[in-house]
Amino acid sequence: MGDFATIFKAYDVRGVVPGELDEEIAEAVGAAFVEVVEATSLVIAHDMRDSSGPLAAAFARGATARGADVINAGLGSTDLLYYASGSLDLPGVMFTASHNPARYNGMKMCRAGAVPIGRETGLTEIRDRAATLLGVPLGRRTGSVTEKNLLAGYAGHLRSLVDLSGSRPLKVVADAGNGMGGLTVPEVFAGLPITLIPLYFELDGDFPNHEANPLQPENLIDLQRAVLAEGADVGLAFDGDADRCWVIDERGASVSPSTITALVAARELAKHPGSTIIHNLITSLGVPEIVREHGGVPVRTRVGHSYIKADMARTGAVFGGEHSAHYYFKDFWFADSGLLAALHVLAALGEQDRPLSEVLSGYARYAASGEINSTVADQAAAITQVRAAYASRDGVTFDELDGLTVTGPDWWFNLRASNTEPLLRLNAEGADAARMAAVRDEVLREVQGI
């Protein structure tokens, strides 16, 4: 199967260009996508990487060769592609490698209505069909390609979902990391009571200033400094395809995505009392506590956007949040949008006079380790050993929804194997920083001693 086995991941296609992913492969995937999804029309968009436009064009050649009409939205963020798929009710493909380095690219696929396509919902079939089409003449183009600018419609839709008309003026520093936030953020914020201070808004797929990955603390340093220097009310950091948003408060402190999940959940429950809120198993224990306190029903799910979106659709949940700063909304076709979450934060801040740190203080209840990766050759053996180490302890429970979660009286941790690397991912939380650190260090000694 060549590179197909390497580049088709659990939720998307991703690989090094041109070594693993090239235009010939993209063309074959375009034809396979149309066949498997049975698409007569579809919409595509791409990020600012040098290879993204050519890959999108090659995909379109494959799709039109199979008779499908292609709407090309051009440059956009991943949540703009979801808007396109939802509002046009068409299957869609986004060409991006998200936060990965410049040499990577990839594809995120969805069915009409922004319904995700993952390994268990069509991606395997697309992979296998594309492998058979690679190098085979696809025939004459019978479908059409139409350019369509959807940026204004996308921005208007986001603004319609969160009311900032009563907000006090806010000073906001946004770091786009030279990614697609540089295009979308000014359009979405246009006309709002916001003074926008841009950092690295120039679209540049080489990421000359820092990686467009807000999960890494070193990539937040420039934003934190700018928030303090400007006396800003809030800082926002976006990843390369701008579907994730990380928040910095007015003190320059990083805000946990679990805290943002709890805040937005409370706001959505105020509009939709008694509704379901989805959270993955790495989010803080404070999230389900706060959901219940606001009359909602928390549902815990596996890590990964395809699981979150499936559970949201199944339960009719109004909102879902992940520890990785992905936020999902029922009124955004159950898809994720970092900018929509940012608008909720700005609305919560702007409707009263307190600083963001005080607004959020009631939503941050526990101390978390963040994700810690350890290189382990035999991940299964390591997880078995860790479970054995805790098996005889009183008051400890286990579950294996996604990896191993061990819960004690005032702490918990989750240990998960990477799908693609020889890594174990540890997340731990405790009632306070000392308790969390003790649990974290104990588990790491077990894992790294193997």
TrEMBL record:
Gene3D superfamilies according to UniProt: Alpha-D-Glucose-1,6-Bisphosphate, subunit A, domain 3, Alpha-D-phosphohexomutase, C-terminal domain
Keywords of the record: Isomerase, Magnesium, Metal-binding, Phosphoprotein
Transmembrane stretches, start-end: none
Requisite cofactors: Mg(2+)
GO molecular function: intramolecular phosphotransferase activity; metal ion binding
Any GO BP annotation: carbohydrate metabolic process
InterPro entries noted in UniProt: A-D-PHexomutase_a/b/a-I, A-D-PHexomutase_a/b/a-I/II/III, A-D-PHexomutase_a/b/a-II, A-D-PHexomutase_a/b/a-III, A-D-PHexomutase_C, A-D-PHexomutase_C_sf, Alpha-D-phosphohexomutase_SF
Limits of the Alpha-D-phosphohexomutase C-terminal domain: 371-445
UniProt domain Alpha-D-phosphohexomutase alpha/beta/alpha: residue ranges: 7-130, 153-252, 262-366
UniProt similarity note: Belongs to the phosphohexose mutase family.
UniProt xrefs under NCBIfam families: PRK09542.1
Protein's name according to its UniProt entry: Phosphomannomutase/phosphoglucomutase
Source organism: Acrocarpospora corrugata
